[in-house]
Amino acid sequence: MSGSAAPLVELAGVVRTYAEGEAEEVRALRGIDLTLPAGEFVSIGGPSGCGKTTLLNLVGLLDTPTAGEVRWNDQPVGLRTDRERSRLRLETVGFIFQRFYLLPTLTAAENVELPMRALGRPRAERRARAVELLREVGLEERARAYPHQLSGGEEQRVAIARAVANDPGLLLADEPTGELDSASARVVLDLLGRVRAGRSATLVLVTHNPEVAARASRHLALRDGRIVADRREA
Amino acid sequence: MRHSARPLRHARWQSALAIAAIASAVALPVVLVSVGEGVDAHEISTLEQSGYQIVVSAQGMHGLERAHQDAAKLLALPSVLDAEPILSISIDVINRTGNYSAAIAEGIVPSEFAATLSPTERGLFPLPLPLGDPNDTQHYQMGSYAGPTTYDVILSQPYAAAAHVTVGSTVVLSPTTNASLGIRYNVTGLFGPQESIFQPAGAFAALLLLSNLQTLTGYAVGPRTVVPDGADTIEVVVTPSAAESPSGLSSVEQEVQAALPSYTVTSVSSEAAQLRSADGILTGFYLALSSVGLAVGLLFLALVLVRRVERDRRSIGIRRAIGLPQRSVAASIVTDGATLAATGAIVGVAAGVAVVEGLATWATSTVQEAARLAIFAPTFLGELGLGVVGLSVLASAAAVRVAWRVEVLEALR
Questions:
Q1: Residue B17 sits in which domain range?
Q2: Where residue B31 falls among pLDDT bands split at 50, 70, 90?
Q3: pTM for this model (two decimals)
Q4: Which of A29, A54, A62 to mutate to test the interface with B (most CBs of B within 10 A)?
Q5: How far B1 CA sits from the closest chain A CA (Å)?
Q6: B262-294 per-residue burial string, b: 16 or more CB within 10 A, e: under 16
Q7: Which CATH number does the domain A9-105+165-232 belong to among 3.30.420.10, 2.30.30.100, 3.40.50.300, 3.40.640.10?
Q8: Would you tell me which of B41, B58, B188, B385 could form a disulfide with B63, CB atoms 3.0–4.6 Å apart?
Q9: Given a cut of 50, is residue B1 above it in pLDDT?
Q10: Under an 8 A CB cutoff, do A118 and B409 touch?
Q11: Chain B, nearest residue to A62 by Cα
């Protein structure tokens, strides 16, 4: 299966305000200018509420900016329909959430199959690929287990397998080790690094754990909705 | 479908209740329509297999006033083989020990009677009928009722057994529960039980000469306040060539009507058509009645699906975040609804069949007999099931609407 190429993602003057014009208005992002070249491993750090997750959601097309523009490969994506953005997400983006977000009514293998089903891949093909991906994350034996039968670390590994099921060019991880013990966190981070490298995908990882952030090649720091530091490893 | 079936286990009670609601809504029309269709089909079949093709009747009970003469007029028509006047009336039978019992008696002309019977019915009677005068002309004597008669009666076997009467014995037949007004009759034969879903109560129990029954009950020549030669109907048997085609039968029907312009003339086939029409109306009524239950069942299904969507907001959010389109989420809700509805329909059909089978086994005689006649038409059951599944799509609409409004980021919080 040929995966989607990692897009060049650019944000220009992006502002995201919640409850705009109301008493409880929150300005989550206040003018973000950012370029994410294909294949880069970027960590986004900063204190709670600084806008890390909002930025990730905007990059991953889960949200739209109040002002400014998000461009993928020089194409603005803000004006695309909900359906088009869903399709782009399905083909190009793999999400990994802090709380794993596996569907509780599906087995591990079925969770991994889900994005492939949505793309209309043949049953046999997606089954075989789900098994292959579960093998890659070391959970081949747990293919038939339901999420409630898995440990937190195992759930996150299944979530990673699901995120890469359609071979996306862009992986977005929001505090992927936030709910894990340090041993499981290490396994998950190693795995994330491996799957990213194996696919030459862009990985944007939100964390406020410096040890986790240290694995990235580029580090963004956010404060009060602004990028206050953008550092590349030498 | 496998994926959509699994959430059913996660909301067992809701699913079970939705299935039960749909099932009970489906079971009702299955019982009503199947039994109704069965009874109607039986009645139509009985009518179509009867030995006569045309019926002459009048307004009101025993409204034919010149039964013997009118029958004779019809017998003179070239296409008429037999014309059988019938007087049907309730009388009292008093046996040797003085016990009274009510019975429906039929007054007939024996020689014409056999021809009006269906092949099945013919086997039930001792033929020729042992009622003395085969043409009922001696006693009648051109309307004077002064001629001699033998006062013979034949009784139905179940009735004779219940009244402890045997062939060769005598019974007193009386128009009221007063033996002094009665006449003693010789029991000259028995006939088999009539095929009817209402037997034995609705079938006649005593068969005697028309003139005997007329004089016994006052439907013979008398004061002008009563009919002179009363009967209920004249059953007319036409020649085979006339009976073959609808146009031939219609032509004879017109001849009969011309001979007896004061009375209503109908053919058995038109009566069967009327029965079919009535059956259609009744089926429509049953379905309309059932639609109330079905509406409640579907409303319940809609509520269960909405409740499920509200509970599964996060799952919907996850699916949407991954990139599954809204229509995929909608499809899974509709599939869920259709699965519940289909399960409910299957359970409902099974329950309806079980109820009818139960009635056919354990209910009281008339209900039992009706249940035994039930017809489980695969087409009807299939259409009912498909209709319910189809309507489940409508029931899913509210849930789809709720799912459509789920904000991905809010659902993931």
A1: 2-45+274-412
A2: very high
A3: 0.68
A4: A62
A5: 13
A6: ebebbbbbbbbeebeeebeebbeebbeebbebb
A7: 3.40.50.300
A8: B58
A9: no
A10: no
A11: B321
